[in-house]
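I had to read the description of the data format several times before I understood it. The format is easy to grasp once an entry is in front of the reader. For illustration, here is how one protein appears when written out as sequence plus structure tokens:
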Amino acid sequence: MHIPDGYLSPQTYIPFYAAFLAFMAVAIKKLKEKLTARLVPFLGMSAAFAFLIMMFNIPVPGGTTGHAVGAALIALLFGPWMAVVSVSIALILQAFVFGDGGITAIGANCFNMAIAMPFIAYGCFRLVQGNSTSLRRMNISAFLAGYLSLSLTSILTAIEFGIQPIIASAPDGTPLYAPYPLKIAIPAMAIEHFLFFGIVEGFITALLFRYFYNQNKEIIEVLKR
């Protein structure tokens, strides 16, 4: 899902950089207010978890890759704002150290996987779980949070590089950046993620959420009222 360099036009990646920096500033402020000595190690573990799980990239049509992200689990356990910081750290390190995702696309990649995905997951869990205390429903809520957040984020990503032929083309109509139109980009990303990567993300989220529920229930942010 990492968008590489050369796929987004400046009129796309510059606004995404601005949006990412704005969210990051708010996230850091909120973490300063609530971060305790006990949660500091979890912040580092979250970034390491996201970094590791995203390294297992599988190329997909449309010029990008598919993989699990881990942002949904982090959002459920520690809140979406911690996910913003930890997943962003992982994405930035991947871009600069491993070339996984473009430097110009850092803002867009962070917006997709470190901002949109955690908030979708957190909202999905809350919506499905409601006030129920059923463990079965909790497992379903965690799975859907991971599945839908990754799948919907893949469509957001596809739209970003799918609109490039519309907004950035040469006078003769040749695309200057991502060459694939929406009719190719969206199905390519949606099929892979709805049918495979989203399911993987859902199971990872549900299994690890259940583990933390059994071991450290009191720290789970999404269960707090």
